[in-house]
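From the shared-data thread, chain only:
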Amino acid sequence: MARLPRLVLPGYAHCVVQRGHGGRPVFVDDADRDAYLEALRSHAGDLGVQVLAWALLEERVMLLARPKDATGLSALMQAVGRRYVSAYNRRQGLTGSLWDGRFRCAPVEAGPTLLDLLAWVDGQAANPDHTSAGLRLAGKPDALLTHPPEFWALGNTPFEREAAYKLRLANGPSAAQAAHWMRSALGGWAIGAAPLAANAADKHGERPMHPRAPGRPRKRLAPKIGVPRA
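Structure, as tokens:
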């Protein structure tokens, strides 16, 4: 079966996942994480991509990123990958590819769904400095991090927003919900309701927005035509 084209919708946030090749670590220490974030800072603005959240885990990278056009996200991941992998291999004395293949992504519906995904990515690590949660909760400005309108709407003051967001981080999604989001990101399926899917369908034609039900499609039976009696 041919590989589906990557689903990228300009103006929408996307949940991005990139994993290490063969389960190998992609971050050994905080120096690696600082190098990756510096690469993002160097390229995101020039390529028109807003970074809303990140999680730099031992075996994978997760981002919420909003590209302004259809090519910005791929250009960003390629530029960051070239810069980071080269530096990582030099530091660790390694060679070859770091990633298990191309990055995966899923467009995310704005509103409550995006806010849920924001907290999910920020809550990926117990150490808040391994995600964007540390900066978001501290209220520290950073050239890389963009807070979406959904975050600003959590309260009228920094204290109100921090308290509301901490509650979301503490509660987190159910295991089933988190698994669904990860499957969607890895499979390239839209995360959201019908309006998002309709928008995506307009831009991508026949490319499916969500996984099809398992099994063969049911055959449509031709209607029976009665034979008039003699």
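The beta strands are 13-19, 49-56, 60-67, 104-108.
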